[in-house]
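Full entry
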Amino acid sequence: MPFCFWLMKYLIFLFTICSSTALYAQKYDYVWIVGDNNQTLDTTHGGAIIDFNQLPIGVKYQYRSINMFMANASICDTSGKLLFYSNGCDIAGADDEILPNGAGINPGIWHSILCDQNNDGYASGYPGIVILPNPDSLDVFYLFHQSVKYIQSPIEDAYVDKVLYTVIRKGDGMSNSYNIGEKNVEIVKDSLAAGEMNAVKHANGKDWWIILPKRNSNQFYIFLFTKDGIVDTHTQTIGDMPPSDKEGYGQTSFSPDGTRMIRYYPYTPVLNLTFDRNTGYFTNYSTFSVDYGSDFASQGGCAISPSGRFLYIAALLQVYQFDLWASDISASQVKVAVWDGFLDPVAISFLTCQLGPDCKIYILGGGDTRYYHIIHNPDEPGLACNFEQRGLVLPVPSGASIPYFPNYRLGPIDNPGLPCTATVAVSSPPVRQHPGVRVYPNPTGGQLTVSLEGTMGQKHIVLRNMYGQTVKQVYVTGQSESYTLSVEDLVSGIYLWEVTTASGVRLGAGKVIKQ
């Protein structure tokens, strides 16, 4: 055979392998965008980035002029590099500049009030916005977003009345810039649930189903999204009617394998629906009750563990675990967390939930606060799930939001793949150290001294294992020159230390060996 023939075959093979690897990686959800109150030009406000490309995950301050509120969606390329994001008002690139024609998402009076007058993000319930890649292209994405109708007369009211989509395409040539194509295109107009818009992969592992209930109803709109856009829409009525006074106070979540959807409202039986990824219809449903006892739960959220076995219900001041594989789900209830009384300045409670790409579940810590709670081992029963209150400290207020991501890594029925990876990186990027912050001796057998010379105000000292789990933490107040931390009870190995200010600014980080 001529050499050019073999060269061509090799190049085709190499291209196929690279393309398959890129599609398999699908790190679309590896960067989360949070933060608001950008009018205050200091490092306690203005924006932050949560980066799952690092271990432990990287959290850094980044000023931006775009406020994140209830609507929160971002997307990376298959390697985990941020491409663009949206707060429901505008679409911005990784440089925080609004994309060409990216302003004016969800036009109307509600946009004028929240986005233009208040300089805030959009509010349509959670999740009310999601970015999906075109099933046949790595350079085209669809932003699906709920639009709110605001009425002042005869009575003031606001409700979701449309689902729209906007297309974002990569620019011409080798540029990494993105441009807006079709914008604010109407898919359906009806009285719809606030939030509760979920996406799940089709049985072919390529196309998508988008599921959205009608307002105060047990009827669901189900859309099929393919390379040609929305190609099919059907409705299905199934399950119990939700309480009209609880709209927007709960959460609807799919299991990572796409076979189950949970619809949770406080003080209402939990709706447990089975879903056929091939036909796009729910095939069965059941309900089970939550025993709140004397607990108070006016609002909350829910998420399902990576294996699909354990359901977590965040109910404002407590978190419950349920075994979805049990014959009696309600009887499997275990309380895994109770609010510990921490205020900053309000109660850091338990609300909306999201499974991360690191196989941990993150829970919004109440309103516009600086904390996410973490369930480190969600596939472990009971207290072994390792619930950590305020496990992720943000450098700025969260904007009362946590992003929504479907399981981008879900494959076809015969090869569903894994929804997440317990270890997503093996090293941290270099950190510019405060000259007075250091940890010694290293290695150590039992005691660590954390030098804090020249630092001001309260410091947060954290020690994590190589899985990113917090094993020691302490808040040091005043002008302490040093702090001694006992590590005698820890197993031998490598640990990651970090010192931050009360506002989350990193003063130093590194590794230490426990002998």
